[in-house]
Amino acid sequence: MTIAENAAHVREWIADAAARAGRAPGSVALVAVSKTVPAAAIVEAYAAGLRDFGENRVQEAVEKYETLAVQMPDARWHLIGHLQRNKVKDAIACASMIHSIDSLRLAEALEARCAAAGRVLPVLIEVNAGEEASKSGYRPSASLDLLYREAAQIAALPHLRLDGLMTVAPFAPDPEAARPVFARVRALRDDLAARLGRPLPQLSMGMSGDFRAAIAEGATLVRIGTAIFGERKAAA
Length: 236
Ligand SMILES: *Cc1c(COP(=O)(O)O)cnc(C)c1O
Prior knowledge:
By secondary structure, the protein is of the alpha/beta class. The chain is 42% helix and 17% strand. It has nine helices and eight strands. The longest helix is centred in the first third of the chain and has 18 residues, at 3-20. It is globular and about 45 Å long. 43% of the residues are buried. Bound molecules: pyridoxal-5'-phosphate (PLP).
């Protein structure tokens, strides 16, 4: 199967999952996760109509952004992995959106850089809803207070635009197992939006193995790598 064929299938599956949930097909955007994927394959995906690409390492994102800027002028790069504060400058050079805000300090570092650059950056707060030690993100059961308090402070930063929440569900062979995790993130989003008094329209959740369950629970951005580009060679 070519990347174009894979992309077409993934789009059909997304539309199908949206229809089952009574949602419009256009209400779920596809972010093609291109970490470890060579530039030529990314260009193929672009030629197949994909415009949103997700990377989890800043260095790799910057390299691809620079290498592909001419060939893919309207591509949008999403940073979806844990971001270190010392990489913030490089991050804002390439990112259209950062999905993985996991501390107020990181948000403040981004705010300072975006203010200096005179731009407003859309961001999502990462929630470790499966409460896994190996993952970054706010843990709601450890401290819901901390999440709500820092979210309010992040939402008030003038050069960041808090658009919603992101989560990576624990791996499970049964894709439906992730559904309660996604439901929990949606409920947190609803609660937080009510507290902030403004909508948080985006829910970034669902990967190749569990995007149907995520769409059923309200995902607006699904991050899909393997189903488009095939198995990754190295762990990333
Ligand atoms: C790698 C990755 C994905 C994509 O995973 P696939 O299973 O290949 O679809 C999605 N989100 C994050 C945060 C990732 O690191």
